[in-house]
Design brief:
Chain A: It holds the Pfam family ABC_cobalt. The complex is a heterotrimer. By secondary structure, chain B is mainly α. Helix content of chain B is 73%, strand content 4%. Classes of the chains: A mainly alpha, B mainly alpha, C alpha/beta.
């Protein structure tokens, strides 16, 4: 799978992960304090921000694997940055990336419109929720509460990661700096639908 | 003795951490995660050189998170039958609820301590090198990640400069979390545009020095599996088995 | 004549997204031991040429190439990826983005691992190349903590550890200040004599290289060869002299300024004034506090002591895009809502921004970005403008554009404080020079008093402007 990847594409995913790593630092700072007060719900509404890097990278590079690789690299970078959640992030990163990847695979890596990006955001949310259900023991919680968490996470995945990812990759495309990447070449309806 | 956790093979340490987490996740009694948590703490006290002041600082948010988890699990418990052990306002807490809640809170503490142990005793670059050597991670990905690591200080500085420049133009970072999220675009776009440029430059510099992403035949710094790793694996597994079977003894 | 190592015959190259060619019908030979420089303006395809030689292109950009390009007597495309790179090594321009490992030793080891050098030989090879390049003391240093000049030497050491036959240089000094660049060139010169390398460089500013090169191939904007000759020493870009339009009216008054950060004193005891329309150059060694001065003046850093009096101070960073917030140039200028639409119109007219009014501010050229940033500052009525290293990495055309931008604004009454190491550029514009060292002000001098004061300049890590060059050209 990696054979067809240019090194500059791999490094691009890594540097994007660093940019978002810095952004996450700004955010997680805030959310931990909330978590104490309102419990796990604190994270749910903004969970999507963790998935955004895979959606942006896939939308730019458009090669099978872009979502899962970028999300895993983002998690690895977090570990290198000394993130205290380190090794746990690596596992959840892979799981989240697989969720987004599944959505792109379902559409045959042919379409990258807003609907597909939102589907990918939802995919990440579902995968990460199933993983969290197991690791964090959501089974012990009231099913309706779990349903609320799940709904919030999926909405966040679709809104923040899906719409947000589209918004940012379009913004980046407009700057003209993505010359030479797949997103620049697809001038047909799909890219801007 | 105090170097044991630092000297462990990073990949092996990672696998053991992951394995422990998956195993502990099957248990909903308070004892298992509690014993595991204490065990990991003891390992860290006796087998590592950790700056405990920094450690506490990192641990604090997790402890708060564990507390948040504790009361959520009590209030939103799945199972509300059984003997009431405690009640206030209209909430009635059963023994079972309390047990599960404590179990999950200890689980948060145990996993956080485990993660911190890894973070505090593992050299990041050695970890990536070890993933390549022991777990056969593709060099393309491994060195890709290392480049990102090198860029961290450069990009942090860039982030600051952009923030300062925006402040100069009268565009402050919003206090409101949602607005802040939307306002991030203005900082993200120049950062990402810079990242695209730097990614190409770095990749070219590596390829110009003969890097093709293929497996290497020899490493300058060889990271091995040694006797200490076998011993530490035994210690970890022992702790894990003791924790998982805790319910049967008491 | 020595053996031919590179041979170009009607080589054409274009990017898949482009209509026109980047390189047009290139035909030339490079012989062993030559020191060739490819010169030409930015965007003429010089870097593309380097990437064709080290085989980064066409694969990395899916470029379309025709004609015949032979490397060491064999067609370029017959080389497997990575095969040629130990024979043809490269040093790139950006010191910050050439490394993937933390320390110098590990970076050299990365290179040796790529070449499948047996482990037993790595230590020795690293020791040898460090001794050869005089970098032994840096062996265990963290690369990112080194200065730009040292990073470039480490990059060169990484190239030389492969024992190459050819060294490609892609504008290796464009991010270095002139004194550091000169030292780097002398160092390279010694290495070339010792190792008998073939050198193939691309460069748009040749004046600092003196007589380093033996042959110069000139490209024009369309990527065609317009000259292939013996190299001669170049003079710096000749910029028009400017008559001062300074008005005797003090607009900026700095009194006893001091700045501290994390308990460290960055600046202390700075006092000076500037007049309307004055162009002041701020110069001094790296880390002397020039950037801190700019940041303190425009309010990014808080003052620890002293005062600043000025009507409105604006800042144009080295990367002007850091200031941008909007999606079009027009909206960028209008962002604060301070200027009326008539004023904005007039401003865009004067800054020649009309034609790019609807373009994305990130997608325009570097010179245009700087004009947009300047416009945004002036639209907010900031009539004292600070510029940080605006000449770094600029070619002749860009320097002329910059010169015109500053000169015209000063004529309109804008006051400038420009941080630069480029004394030729400074000489062509400055009314006054503020010299800084170790966070303290050496003094503010009338510009003409400084240029011949070689000692004073050397103390501040500056090279005197090549006034002789200016004279020689004006007599020619």
């Amino acid at each position: 799978m990696l054979k067809s990847w240019k090194l500059k594409e791999v490094v691009l995913m890594s540097l994007f992960a660093v940019v978002f790593g810095i952004v996450y630092l700004v955010f997680v700072h805030v959310s931990n304090i909330w978590a104490a007060v309102i419990g796990p719900l604190a994270y749910e509404w903004m969970f999507g921000i963790w998935f955004i890097v895979s959606i942006i990278c896939m939308n730019i590079i458009r090669k099978p694997g872009a979502a899962v690789l970028s999300e895993s690299m983002a998690a690895a970078i977090e570990v290198l940055l000394g993130n205290a959640v380190g090794p746990r992030l690596l596992l959840s990163g892979i799981v989240q990336g697989l969720g987004a990847e599944a959505a792109f695979a379902l559409t045959g890596y042919k379409h990258f419109n807003l609907a597909v990006l939102m589907l990918a955001g939802a995919g990440s949310a579902v995968f990460s929720f199933v993983y969290g259900y197991f690791i964090s023991g959501y089974a012990a919680l009231d099913p309706s509460f779990v349903a609320l968490m799940f709904t919030l996470r999926v909405i966040s995945g679709m809104a923040i990661a899906g719409i947000g990812g589209k918004f940012i990759s379009d913004g980046l495309l407009a700057t003209g700096s993505l010359r030479g990447y797949a997103i620049s070449r697809s001038t047909k309806g799909d890219a801007r639908a | 003795m105090r170097n044991l956790l630092h000297d462990m093979n990073p990949s092996l340490k990672f696998v053991l951490v992951a394995l422990s987490m998956f195993a502990i996740a099957f248990f909903f009694n308070p004892l298992t995660p509690f014993i595991f948590w204490i065990g990991i703490l003891l390992l860290q006290v006796f087998m590592s050189k950790v700056n405990w002041k920094a450690w506490s600082l990192f641990m604090l948010p997790f402890a708060l998170g564990a507390f948040g988890y504790l009361w959520t699990t009590i209030v939103f418990a799945a199972d509300t039958n059984g003997d009431v052990v405690w009640s206030f306002l209209e909430f009635q807490v059963t023994a079972e609820q309390l047990e599960t809640a404590l179990s999950l809170a200890f689980r948060v503490m145990a996993f956080s301590t485990l993660s911190l142990m890894f973070a505090f005793t593992t050299d990041p670059v050695k970890f990536i090198m070890s993933l390549m050597q022991q777990l056969k991670l593709s060099p393309k990905l491994a060195y890709g990640v290392l480049v990102g690591y090198q860029f961290l200080p450069v990009m942090k500085d860039q982030f600051q400069q952009i923030q300062q420049a925006h402040r100069l133009r009268g565009a402050e970072l919003e206090k409101n979390a949602l607005r802040r999220l939307l306002g991030m675009r203005r900082i993200l776009i120049p950062m990402l545009a810079g990242a695209v440029r730097n990614a190409e430059r770095s990749a070219f510099a590596m390829e110009a020095r003969g890097f093709t992403g293929e497996a290497r035949s020899d490493y300058f710094e060889v990271i091995k599996l040694r006797k200490v790793d076998a011993a530490m694996t035994a210690v970890f597994l022992l702790l894990l088995i003791a924790s998982c079977s805790a319910e049967y003894w008491f | 004549m020595h053996e031919t190592i590179f041979s170009f015959r009607n080589v054409r190259f274009r990017f898949p997204d482009d209509e026109q060619l980047t390189l047009t019908d290139l035909s030339f030979d490079i012989h062993r031991g030559e020191r060739v420089v490819i010169s030409g303006p930015s965007g003429c395809g010089k870097s593309t040429l380097v990437y064709l030689l080290n085989r980064l292109y066409p694969f990395n950009c899916d470029g379309i190439i025709s004609g015949s390009l032979q490397l060491f007597g064999k067609d370029a495309e017959e080389y497997a990826p990575g095969e040629i790179n130990h024979r043809i090594a490269t040093v790139f321009q950006d010191p910050d983005s050439q490394f993937c490992m933390p320390t110098v030793e590990e970076e050299l080891a990365f290179t040796l691992e790529n070449l499948h050098v047996p482990r037993e030989m790595m230590k020795q090879k690293i020791t040898e190349v460090l001794a050869l390049t005089g970098l032994s003391a840096l062996r265990h240093e963290v690369i990112q903590s080194l200065s730009g000049g040292m990073k470039q030497r480490v990059a060169a050491a990484c190239a030389l550890v492969m024992e190459p036959e050819v060294l490609l240089l892609d504008e290796p000094i464009s991010h270095l200040d002139p004194v550091t660049a000169k030292e780097f060139i002398l160092w390279l010169d010694r290495l070339q004599h010792e190792l008998d390398l073939t050198i193939f460089a691309v460069e748009h500013r040749l004046d600092l290289w003196d007589s380093f090169f033996s042959r110069e191939i000139q490209l024009d904007r369309s990527g065609s060869i317009i000259g292939d000759k013996l190299a001669t020493a170049h003079f710096p870009v000749l910029l028009p002299e400017r008559a001062s339009t300074m008005v005797p009216e003090t607009v900026l008054k700095v009194n006893g300024m001091a700045v501290k950060s994390h308990g460290k004193e960055l600046l202390s005891g700075l006092s000076f004034t500037a007049n309307r329309g004055e162009i002041m150059v701020v110069a001094g060694p790296n880390g002397s506090g020039k950037s801190s001065l700019l940041k303190a003046l425009c309010g990014i850093y808080a003052l620890d002591a002293g005062s600043i009096q000025a009507p409105g101070i604006g800042f144009v960073p080295q990367s002007p895009e850091y200031l941008f917030l909007e999606k079009t140039v027009g909206r960028e200028l209008a962002f604060s809502g301070i200027a009326s639409s008539a004023q904005l119109n007039d401003l865009m007219e004067r800054l020649r921004l009309k034609e790019i009014e609807n373009a994305h501010p990130f997608s325009v050229s570097h010179g245009q970005k700087r004009r947009v940033a300047t416009g945004a500052m002036l639209a907010d009525r900031r009539t004292v403008l600070l510029m940080d290293e605006p000449t770094s990495g600029q070619d002749a055309a860009a320097l002329h554009e910059l010169h015109r931008l500053i000169s015209e604004r000063a004529d309109e009454g804008v006051t400038f404080l420009i941080v630069t190491h480029d004394m030729e550029f400074a000489e062509s514009l400055a009314d006054s020079v503020l010299l800084i060292k170790d966070g303290k002000m050496t003094g503010k001098y009338p510009a003409q008093d400084v240029w011949n004061h070689a000692e004073l300049l050397a103390e501040h890590h500056l090279l005197p402007p090549k006034g002789a060059g200016r004279l020689a050209e004006s007599f020619a």
